[in-house]
Every structure is written in C-alpha cells, then in structure tokens.
Amino acid sequence: PSLQILPPTGEVVTRKGGQVSFECKANGNPAPTVQWSKKDGLLPSGLQVETGYLLNLNEVQRQDGGIYQCTASNGIGQPVTGEIRLHVLYPPEVSVLRSWVNSGEGLEAKLDCIVHADPPSEV
C-alpha cells in the first residue's frame, strides 16, 4: 500500500481545549485498512476515528501531545506507517511539592513549585 498524510507537513500545533483532525489516505489493491496508534503511549480517550482514515481529537489536553502513527496494510507486502506530530500549547500549570512548610518567626522558609507551560513561562 501507499500512504499520504494530511497535513503534509506531518505537524499540527493547537491550543489546549482545541480540536484537531489527522488524515491518513491509503491506496492499494486490495484496499488497505488503516490503524491509528500513539508512539510511546495510548491513544487519548474521546477521540473519534471516521472511515478508518480520519482521526479527530476534541478538547485536546497537554498530555495528548506527541507522535501519532497510522499504519496501512492489505496483506500484500509490508505495512506502511506514517507519522504526525501534535504540539499542544497550554497556559501555565503550577503544582507544589509540599502543601505546607514548617518554619519559625523570622526564619526562612523554602517553597518549591513546578510550573509547566508551552510556550515556557517566566516564574
């Protein structure tokens, strides 16, 4: 089988909460089947696969970013795989290592927090 990935750049950028669609057009005789997977992870919940070729993600989350693969096979020759990279932009998310810190009056206290954001934020 042969494969055409849409968008042709193989890369999609979206904001958190957005919607994206990937298309994987496969040709061959007999007609190939297409399977979607996510490299180094599970496919996100809430996605929709239409007619086997179109993958829709609604309400995209930060952890949905990564490389999505479509594999076309028809039992003749080797399967063909294409990749699309999803880059998710999201506002700062702050988490703390400890929710409380002991200190005395007039003493220093160290508060650690972790900030995730894309593009990176200033803390």
TrEMBL record:
Keyword Glycoprotein: no
UniProt domain Ig-like: residue ranges: 1-81
A molecular function (GO) term: axon guidance receptor activity
InterPro entries on file: Cell_Adh-Cytoskel_Orgn, Ig-like_dom, Ig-like_dom_sf, Ig-like_fold, Ig_sub, Ig_sub2
Annotated keywords: Immunoglobulin domain
GO cellular component: axon; neuronal cell body; plasma membrane
GO BP terms, alphabetized: homophilic cell adhesion via plasma membrane adhesion molecules; synapse organization
This protein's name: Ig-like domain-containing protein
